[in-house]
Specification:
single chain, 14 helices, 7-stranded mixed beta sheet, 535 residues, elongated
Length: 535
């Protein structure tokens, strides 16, 4: 089976699947594959907090065109999964240079199924987009096509408890993933000072109490399958062996009375009013923490969907309140812009790369303490985050895309979006950046005093700084002595500004490199004119 999820939550989903008894768990891109029986499929749909849908593949083939997709689908025996009385729909995901339109692939699959039934029964089942009995999923990777049954139906992030939402609601799967990545399982109080419609609060309460996230859903797609076992599903659905006691509080605050009213409706519908406290209170007005210690997690506005007059001032206020009001807490802030994190003004201890919709976001962890950072008390043992056995709480676990983004941040010193990371380059830029190649063999430089002896030096090469005026330690250079000429360094190359020529400005900095000077000689044939280099 395949469990689909949001990018960067694959590791958390894999831990959930292993805890539920899945075998052969393998991480992919926005998905985790695993094996198990029918009971596990039911259990995963009800209990997985970071899964979007659970697919059961049943037919794989290769196709080089849409007509080959049609022929392959038409050869399958559809009596095993469909009947004339059932309605169906088709969802298509395409990653291929052959097929460029996922809707067209879905149409061809639908035509093949309809023609198969028409030829056999002179009648075809109906297609229903809103509430189908059977949901089919076709995944195309290059020329490999996989047909699967969607056992979930509606996306599993639709828990069933949300009756109202604010302007920019947080996805339930992302909210649960944030909490699970932090390691919090209900060991202390949980606070969200900008709670909005209360998604983080409700997901935190369900995690702390061991309530399955699918307990409020009205139905799952597998309930309409031919082999549905209602008795087995009832046993799994009503199993409360994972329930836990929660002796702390979950508190939510917001500056908007409307947002708090929406959160109250959702909390009441989820049956968690006993465990969650809500109050209209701006974060700026916090003079003391609601509890001596705990976890603070929040999703402030990014300035994208919710417009803020001064975004830097907002995040600066967040950092100031965290520092002065919440010592002893672990704080987690999810945001989009690097400038916003800079405005917080606190040193983070961990970074988690996440996606909020299409936005590349980060959740940063801050250990809040009194005084300076060096004055923190030394802890004898690392804190436990409540993860499953084998989890290293001190390692920052990122998927492949998260690792690339962290490496990119370390190299450039700032975060860039995927569109800005690879700027478009012209043909002239590509030709100019090609390394110099020469057919002549490399000859080592000879000593000026003894031409027959190769030049050697025990001191590492250092680029010479701008020479001082005559009379202030400047060495006089004699003409005609090529070995004594001062080395003239090139300016640092910048992709954004183009290749610059030699600078005549008095304050220009020279390029410094840790690599030794290669000593390559340029022939007259391959040399480029000065004007071209300037350009």
């Amino acid at each position: 089976m395949i469990a689909k999820t949001l990018a960067e939550l694959e590791d958390v989903l894999a831990e959930e699947l292993i805890a539920l008894g899945a075998d052969n768990v393998e991480l992919g891109t926005r998905m985790v594959s695993f094996t198990g029986d029918k009971a596990l499929m039911y259990k995963v749909n009800v209990h997985c907090r970071t899964a979007l849908r659970i697919l059961k593949p049943f037919y794989t083939f290769k196709a080089e065109s849409a007509d080959e997709v049609y022929e392959a689908v038409k050869q399958f025996n559809w009596d095993d999964y469909l009947s004339l009385d059932t309605t169906f729909s088709i969802d298509a995901v395409v990653f291929s240079h052959i097929f460029t339109h996922s809707k067209f692939v879905a149409y061809r699959v639908k035509d093949a199924i309809a023609d198969w039934f028409n030829e056999k029964y002179e009648k075809r089942p109906s297609v229903s987009v809103s509430n189908p009995d059977i949901v089919l999923h076709i995944h195309v990777a290059h020329n490999k096509c996989t047909l699967s049954l969607d056992s979930s139906g509606e996306s599993l992030h639709k828990r069933g408890y949300r009756v109202a939402q604010g302007d920019a609601p947080l996805n339930e799967v992302l909210a649960a993933g944030m909490i699970l990545k932090s390691g919090w399982r209900g060991e202390c109080d949980f606070i969200d000072p900008m709670c909005g419609s209360g998604t983080l609060l409700i997901e935190a309460a369900m995690i702390a109490l061991g309530i399955p996230p699918g307990i409020h859903r009205p139905h799952f797609a597998f309930e309409k399958w031919k082999d549905f076992d209602s008795e087995l599903f009832s046993t799994i659905y009503n199993d409360d062996s994972g329930a836990r006691e929660f002796n702390h509080r979950i508190m939510g605050f917001d500056i908007s009375p409307k947002a708090i009213a929406i959160a109250e409706k959702n909390v009441k519908n989820a049956g968690l009013k006993k465990y969650i406290d809500l109050e209209v209170k701006p974060f700026r007005q916090f003079a003391e923490a609601p509890a001596p210690e705990g976890i603070l997690m929040t999703n402030p506005p990014y300035g994208e969907r919710l417009k803020v007059e001064d975004l830097d001032e907002l995040y600066s206020m967040i950092g100031e309140r965290l520092k002065h009001v919440f010592p002893g807490y672990r704080a987690y802030v999810l945001s989009y812009r690097k400038e916003s994190f800079d405005a917080i003004g606190l040193k983070h201890s961990t970074r988690y790369f996440l996606y909020n919709g299409a936005l590349e976001c980060e959740m940063r962890e801050y250990e809040i303490f009194s005084g300076k950072r060096d004055d923190r008390p030394v802890k004898g043992a690392p804190r436990s985050r409540g993860r499953s056995d084998g989890y290293d709480a001190h390692s920052e676990r990122n998927s492949r895309e998260g690792y690339r983004r962290s490496q990119r941040a370390n190299e450039t010193g700032e975060e860039k979006s995927r569109d800005e990371y690879r700027p478009k380059r012209s043909d002239d830029d590509r030709n100019r950046d090609k390394p110099f190649k020469s057919d002549r063999p490399f000859k080592p430089r000879r000593s000026s005093s003894n031409p027959d002896k190769p030049f050697r030096s025990d001191t590492p090469f250092k680029s010479r700084e701008r020479s001082a005026p005559r009379g202030e330690g400047r060495r006089e250079v004699r003409s005609g002595d090529p070995g004594d000429k001062p080395f003239k360094s090139r300016e640092r190359f910048s992709r954004e500004e183009g290749r610059g020529g030699r600078s005549d400005k008095p304050g220009a900095k020279s390029f410094k490199s840790d690599k030794p000077f290669s000593g390559k000689k340029f022939s007259d044939k391959d040399a480029k004119p000065r004007d071209f280099r300037k350009k």
